[in-house]
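Quick log. Single chain, no ligands specified.
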Amino acid sequence: MLKNLLIKNYALIEEIAVDFSSGLTIITGETGAGKSILIDALGLLLGERASTDMIRTGAEKAIVEGVFYIKGIARVADILRGTENDITEELIIRRELTTKGQSRCFVNDSPVSVSLLKEIGDELVDLHGQHEHQSLLRPETHIDFLDDFGGYEKETASYQTLFRSLAELTGKKRELHDQENELKAKKSLYEFQIKEIDTVNPQTGEEDQLESELKILENTEKLNELTNGIHQLLYEAEHSVRDSLIKARKMVEQLAEIDGTFTESIGEARSAEVIVEELSKQVQTYASRIEFNPERLEKIRERLGSLSLLKKKYGGTVDLLIEFRKKIGEEFKFAENFDVELSKLEKELESLRSECGTKASLLTHKRKESAKKLEHAILSSIAELGIQKAKFVTVIQQSTVDKSSTTLSVKIGNQLFAATSKGVDQVEFFISTNVGEDVKPLVKVASGGEVSRIMLALKGALADSDKTPLLIFDEIDTGVSGRIGQSVGLSLKRLSQHHQVIAITHLPQIAGLADAHFAVEKIEANKKTSTRLRKLETEERVREVAKLMSGAEVTDAGLKSAKELMGIK
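-> predicted structure:
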């Protein structure tokens, strides 16, 4: 619901700051006082088109700001979540318009686009009257009105689950068709690449192993030289390390005979001799295996050359090359079996289209049943609201498609029907408000007052299911007599039990039912005219209702009648 509204420097409004409550709020005022300006400002806040002409003379900027309580409104929370805005119990919406033509929108002080502002506004407010911010005037919403009235959420959810699977599978089929020509063109290339890679047959880790072996084969002469040199130095030379260690060990033994502290050092000297012997044997064993093999050397060089060529063409490393081979192998296999895969997918789609069609057909049946009840409810209500002998029809249609169509479709019987997440039905309300006239689309109804009363009747029928928190009715009493006005007022009062309702009216029968009553007044100060909005206390409310009944001159009899109308003793 709308908790607070601030309007600054908008048309005749210098500044208005007002708190609203739940229930039925009535706004009255003299013709020309600025009631329409107030509605225009609200429309601006809800994303309607902005004009610099509406900035108050002498001001640089116009501001309209509203604070809405949104706890429990899931659709608004989803919008905010999708735009990464914080989700709070209160939502502050602000629109600023400068004389330079700049229009800026903010949600909780974060800049947003006008389109997002309008999307949020559509969920928060239905504004009815001489304005376009009316969900009833958007035919695409009629199916939602009917479904909300019917209350078959379980069937709708069941269909939507299947439809999501159908949409996903249809998208997959579309991707397959998009890939078909590309795959056929690449099939011969893949075949050549696979043959080229498989001829070499690279293995994981072999490159490192080959390079290690190549290094050894290319350095056999050096390896022989080094191993022989080590063996000579350690074991064979005239003054070898081994001989020197033996002499050193004998000297340590002599030391130990004199000083026992060298006893342990004898063992260490012997260990050094063993280490030298082991190292010498290891070098000798290695030297015995060294063999110069020019054939093996050439094979390794050729193999590494082949791997290098493949790496340059298909991957920077052997591992990437193997990964590439796996990928094109799968692509080649898919290309070879494309028709089989497509046929398999088409069978799945055929089954899913039939399942979806069954669910969609059930929804159509439910809608037709609900449409008759809704038509009866609307006709009964609008007759009470002064639109006599009207005709109201809910038109439910479907569109067939052929097999070659790319439109998402479901199968009912032997026929394909265009489908959306809401089923196969297009729903639109038709009406005739005059005797002898054929019904026409509701969006072409000329009278704003009639649209408002039709919406009032529809909202009354949907009171339990409709989730829009705030309904605004601008001059809903246009062309309405006092008796009908009483019915309109009672309908608004009943509606205010489920929604916050704000209504602008000239009829005392409606104004007398207010939970809160505001007066729009035009004042002059400092040679400037301003519009203000003032909340009326009980006595002021009585006087305002009396003025609506008898004119500017209020009599005691008029006050008494007003109190009777308002139920005040």
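The longest helix spans residues 153-200.
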